[in-house]
Batch of 4 targets.
Target 1
Amino acid sequence: MTNVTDDFLSIVLNETPLLDVRAPVEFEKGKFINATNLPILNDEERRLVGIRYKEAGNSAAIKLAESLIQNEGKEKRVHLWQDYLKKNPEAKLYCFRGGQRSGIAQEWLKESNIDITRLKGGYKAFRNFLMQQSEDISAITPTLILGGRTGSGKTILLNKLQNAIDLEGVAHHRGSSFGSFVNAQPSQIDFENNLAYRLIQFHHKNFTHLVLEHESHNIGRTFIPKPVYDNFMQGELVLLQTPIEVRALITYEEYVLGALKEYALQYGEEGPKKWAQNVQSGLKRIQKRLGNQLYRQLAQLFDKAYSQDTQAEAKTFYLEWIALLLERYYDPMYDYQIKKSPLPVVFEGNTIDVLHFLQHQS
């Protein structure tokens, strides 16, 4: 009997390794946590087989696939799968619909005395499960939305809670005009899949509330699916109050020191220059909203900070630049959003008070 499973819940809760035999182009478009792509057909082979399928049907497509792979190609693929399964013996196998490609891979591995379970319905069925679970869980889970002005330390606080999901972390973006990392954000599909994993894992820990940061629908170039976002926004608001000097320092440590380190690791000696160019581009993007006078003032402050010879000298100007940007741009924008927000405010206070409150709502 064919060894298949549709126990997708177990796969999520255990973060089971997954062997994805789809073509690389399919994998890049959308994948799952802990999935490794070792395709049975490369992109060009998949394209040719697809054309043959449309022109002459399934049997002709299978014959073409077999001729493209041939014996040497088969041995190479099986060898790669064997190496992966030695390191991940509990892995499950899938293709797009759980049919021919994963079925053939399963048979080839069986010939090598390796039994592997494949996903019933493949990638498509598993993704449908994840999307439905995201909607269902977000609909029944009370949420506490952590708000606060930019730089308040919301992410730092979230990471101290067991019943929180860091949406910016899942989106790999800091959530502002200057929030991009060196490495690209996940694709939209990957973001949705990863968020679903987090929601399912959260749900099965039996917390009473889910804590999230107060986010817009979009986080960088990814967006929270509308039904899920609407469910999140049925919650209650907790406001974190942090003095401007602390907020400027938190922002400096993350957006300046942390970002410079990240760029240096990625680009070496060119890192600081590339980081500065990215910040200058970020300022340019919001120039119209800043107004020309404030834009020039901020641009000059940043250039002055960046041109200093020592980190200690630069820090003073960076903190001045950050404080001005927070007070004149981000604070009015956030205060307006809070004022018009329909979410009821159930608590507000400093970091210690808010953390204590949220820890007692788990």
Target 2
Amino acid sequence: MELNRMGSTAGQVITCKAAVAWAPKQPFVIEDIQVAPPLASEVRIKITHTSVCHTDVSVWQIKELVHVFPRIFGHEAAGIVESLGESVTDLQAGDHVIPIFQGECGHCSCCRSSKTNLCEEFVVNPAEGLMMTDRKTRFSIRGQPIFHFMGTSTFSEFTVVHHAQVVKVDPSAPLHSICLLGCGVATGVGAVLKTAKVEAESSVAIFGLGAVGLAVAEGARIAGASKVIGVDINPKKFIKGKLFGLTECLNPLDYGQPIQQVIHQKTDGGVDYSFECVGNVDVMRTAYDSCHKGWGVSVVVGVDTSSRRLLEFNPLELFEGRTWTGTIFGGFKGRSQLPELVDKYMKKELQVDEMITHRLPFLEINEAFKLLIEGNSLRCIMHMPNSGY
């Protein structure tokens, strides 16, 4: 399906390739699907590049998280606006955009507040598979509906997204790189700059050195932190970590005592800030305990998708002066603030390309999942057929 800058396919049903998940844990099947035109307030996007995030993997693997199939996953991508539904006035066909799972309606109490990036209308729900406009899907195959994921569904050559989840970006920015700003990079960098507001010369500990953990390290570098400790049980990640500014790397398996005690000894009582980027309640607890009494702040970045979701916590610990908080999408208001990160990347103030370990054709999506699951990639960028980019 060819696309020109004038949106010549507007109003038509488009047949294109998509990776369809027919059941949990089953390999993705490349199918010819139909994508309906956008309704009012919606945008149809030609996806040029997309990546696999751990959230895609986790939800795809756990039946309890997503009850309905078939489904089109994917939420870390970039592309070009193909056509617009009625009432969308801030975009036009041909715009370069990043679809985002964390929407920004712009008028609810949360969107009007400078204290949060949450949106009352666009609540993140991985199990949701319908468009909020009419509670239906825009995808189908042989007449059968295909469900959406995170409001984005980027494992398709074309997708339909509510305009509150579409960020217009600098057209000179390479889509094959800035697609990572749709989730992992923004989440990690924002956790430092927006949520924790790390100051220069601070000490930081990062638990989990995947793409999000490295993005936290990048945020700490930008913030001017003086000590940045990376913690992971896979020492292979330390080499890459040091490229992102880690000053020290710790493997808990190398010590005969809890790693939080090691960190206390190395930092005179604990770090100023800690970030949990694994999604494990035990690691969350350890990250909190690694902070200094009196002022330490621990930020939960990872999402525990297991059935073990309870943290053991004594309320009396709150009197020790530590703060425990979480972050979603790094605290960024997507539509209004994500362009800031694109600008930083274009000015070479933000490392993004360094996180890309593999590039594959979209048709090899199962290999991209395998690479991430086996721990052999940070981010694998897949380019769509005939993307032209």
Target 3
Amino acid sequence: MAQAIDTEIQTYMPYLARNERYNKEKPFGADFPVDRCEGGQCANHIFDNQAVTVHNMRGGEQPVLDRHGFCLVHAQTSLTAAEASNSRTPPMERYLGEIERILYEKFPEYLRIEIMDFQVRKRVPEFPHKIGVKVEFEQPATVPHTDFSVSGAFMRMKDIFPGQEEHYENKSFDLINVWRVLKGPNDDWPLALCDFQSVDLDKDVTPNDCLHETGVGENWLLHANDSHRWYFMDWQEEADLIVFRNADSEGVRARAFHAAIRNPKSVCEPRHSIEVRVVAFR
């Protein structure tokens, strides 16, 4: 397959609309059916679909985690697409150990790293035109967001480490995501990340309730701003790891709003990817 370098992608981003609704009610979304609840809504999101230019990270100034909210790490790992699973199988356990070792090596500021969870995604050909098709794996997430707000970070820590509050309360930590494709090269629905320096935290960001059958979490959603600078990795290979911060315990460090984007020039098979989320203590 010939690989022409794309310096940018022209696409659309479904931002959360700046709608008066959110002056009265908080944005929310549920990840379970609510039809058994009379008058139940899966979400109250109103979207503002904006044209965006997404720039290629390759070849230019390399992003820095503490400045841009994300960075690139080139590292070989052992997990194959056939072995990838959402269960803790032996190949998955081996992979999680490799991710920990890579993070310790590349980011010495972290004194303790613990795996929180992981997610395999495999796009079905019907996505995104036929929502509701039964799928084995989660589909690409297209709304620009971070996985957690500061409050949501502590909610998730309580879920992952029940009864162990003394291990993370009053501690400084980051919630980090390590994202890669399972089969490269990939240009199908690549991950786009927004340069943190281009986000106005006072005007562009709003908390969003994440409703689950077993509880509630919180993340951040993004409103449109022409100042936003978006980036992707052209022809991503299995050894191209994208490392980004979702949140930190103090809410002061760079974080990466992110979303999967449609690439109108894609020639690859449907994207197959894996993300690992860790808590990294300073």
Target 4
Amino acid sequence: MPGPTRRAALSLAATTLAAPALAQGRFPDRPVRLIIPWPPGGSADAQLRSLAELAGRTLGQPVVAENRAGASGTLGAQFLTTQARPDGYALAQMHLSVIRRPFLVRNPPWDPVQDFTHIIGLTGWLFGIVVKADGPIKSWADYIAYAKAHPGRLTYATSGIATTNHLTMEELSAKEGVELTHVPYRASNEAAVSVASGEVMSVADSSAWAPLVDSGALRLICVWTAERSPRFPQAPTLKELGHDMVGTSPYGIAGPKGMDPGVVRSLHEAFKAALFDSANAAVRAQFDMPLEYYDPEAYRDFVARRAAYERTMAERLNLRID
């Protein structure tokens, strides 16, 4: 039987070469998973679920939010680095605990820069320092004056050791040359209540204290955002107080390392549109969450800078969790 003509052979070859591309189709052709490494109901959960719903409309496929709480919020990162394929269908929240963890343990589970594909920076939280409203401290100047006059007696509560708020307070106390006493709590709202009851003198944390400030039980003496908070415009920023510092614990979205740049671009554009949508802006406003947008390159650069900072602070404070 005669073999195929040259034209037929070329046609067959072209069909064969085109088959993988046709099989791949456009991205996405099925739902995308977004792992939220916290229990349902918190501010990050609400913001990311809103983002997922909005991004799914742009992508033409659902973005399915999946809660995987535990391990200090690192189960999403564990999944990306050990199980997920770099095809764009498995994503997770990238937050500072993921960046920080390698510098707190003897056997680092990942490199926060090299072992992920950084897709977009999103938002953070409103942090600040609050004191009892009817106490002797009325301002940041009073806070530092008290600390200098009573070394080690000014206590501050946070949501735990090696958290963003703890590290920021360590940096601030070093810059001001004062000795403060750290009192870690398990929950931010418990810490705020403890200040109102007089158990500790101040709390440095995200805005779980806001209702008590609104009620007049607590006084906000500074915020850590780049600009003054629209909700609490009377409180100065750290920059206004002489410290070139911003502390919002920003987070974003990442995927496994090695993702296709075209897929990254598609995901980034969908999540960016969702972030700037009025519906997501309303969720952020509800929880006093400042905008911290980064494109993929800028977000990777942010993670690299933050990883260097986290390494330095872990070494300086001799922080270990294992």
